[in-house]
């Protein structure tokens, strides 16, 4: 996929979240059920857990960790949370929510992992006990760029740490296929197989670019990391299977 098309698709999503930030925040307050199944793979033997949350949105994964991991230990485990997102409004909501919790130290940055090079959209230094990529991959245009993102994130995992990502399998559900909108003529022959435009049916009218990651691509993304898959499962959504998770470890 050429860079102009990548930028165009990213612009579609930036505009989508600009329009829908308030509604999106209101409908994204609850933790995903699949996050609970991640917890046994986290090393909580030290006094703190360092986390990089890529595409953190309103920070609800940070809230989940603070409650499910941090506060659940005695003494409470401190969560060193680094969230990045390209939407200032959602980051503002994340800042407000996370500031109220005593056992989480948060750093929130406005960065875009699609615009330009992947590495420019990520923190310049640091390795983490947990690198999380939830609700993001379907918004990353271009197969090679998705592989580069996973490979780069794997390099940010500390020895003994984990990289956890989920792919939204929206195309497998009729209610989401019914929201597919035809591509404009100037994009129809430039997008990849599995690329779709979905409409938004809450509040403001908006369109978002989403890519469907199938089993073959999911396996290729795992292979690109060079890490070892220690768990895979389906969870979330009305059918309990909307997201396909992979938990990858630096350990053999």
Explain how this protein is built.
- This protein has 252 residues and is of the alpha/beta class.
- It has one domain: Vaccinia Virus protein VP39 (Rossmann fold).
- Helix content is 33%, strand content 27%.
- It has helices at 3-27, 33-36, 60-70, 88-99, 143-154, 174-177, 185-188, 215-225, and strands spanning 48-54, 78-85, 104-110, 128-133, 157-168, 180-181, 195-200, 206-211, 228-235, 243-249.
- The longest helix has 25 residues, at 3-27.
Features:
single chain; alpha/beta; Rossmann fold; seven-stranded mixed sheet; three-stranded antiparallel sheet; 8 helices; 10 strands
**Computed Rg:** 17 Å
- Overall residue-averaged pLDDT value: 91
Number of helices: 8
Provide the domain count: 1
Shape: globular
CATH topology descriptor:
Rossmann fold
* Strand order in space, largest sheet: 3-2-1-4-5-10-9
**N-end to C-end Cα span:** 34 Å
CATH superfamily: Vaccinia Virus protein VP39
How many strands?
A: 10
The amount of helix comes to 25-40%
CATH architecture: 3-Layer(aba) Sandwich
Strand content: 25-35%
H and E order:
HHEHEHEEHEHEHEEHEE
- Major β-sheet annotation: 7 strands, mixed
Give the topology.
Blueprint: H1 3-27, H2 33-36, E1 48-54, H3 60-70, E2 78-85, H4 88-99, E3 104-110, E4 128-133, H5 143-154, E5 157-168, H6 174-177, E6 180-181, H7 185-188, E7 195-200, E8 206-211, H8 215-225, E9 228-235, E10 243-249
Parallel strand pairs: 1-2, 1-4, 2-3, 4-5
Antiparallel strand pairs: 5-10, 6-7, 7-8, 9-10
Helix pairs in contact: 5-8
């Amino acid at each position: 996929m050429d860079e102009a098309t990548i930028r165009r698709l990213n612009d579609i999503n930036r505009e989508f979240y600009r329009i829908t930030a308030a509604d999106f925040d209101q409908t994204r307050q609850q933790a995903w059920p699949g996050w609970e199944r991640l917890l046994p793979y986290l090393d909580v033997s030290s006094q703190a857990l360092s986390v990089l949350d890529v595409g953190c949105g309103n920070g609800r994964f940070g809230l989940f960790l603070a409650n499910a991991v941090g506060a659940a230990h005695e003494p409470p485990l401190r969560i060193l949370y680094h969230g990045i997102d390209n939407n200032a409004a959602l980051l503002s909501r994340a800042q407000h929510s996370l500031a109220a919790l005593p056992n989480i130290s948060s750093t929130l940055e406005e960065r875009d992992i699609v615009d330009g090079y992947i590495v420019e959209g990520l923190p310049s230094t640091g390795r983490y006990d947990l690198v999380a990529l939830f609700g993001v991959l379907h918004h990353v245009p271009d197969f090679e760029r998705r592989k580069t993102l996973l490979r780069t994130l794997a390099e940010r995992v500390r020895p003994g740490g984990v990289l956890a990502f989920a792919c939204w399998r929206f195309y497998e559900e009729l209610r989401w296929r019914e929201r597919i909108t035809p591509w404009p003529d100037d994009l129809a022959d430039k997008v990849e197989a599995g690329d779709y435009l979905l409409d938004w049916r809450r509040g403001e009218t908006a369109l978002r670019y989403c890519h469907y990651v199938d089993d073959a691509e999911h396996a290729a993304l795992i292979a690109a990391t060079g890490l070892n898959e220690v768990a895979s499962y389906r969870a979330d959504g009305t059918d309990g299977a909307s997201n396909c998770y992979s938990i990858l470890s630096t350990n053999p």
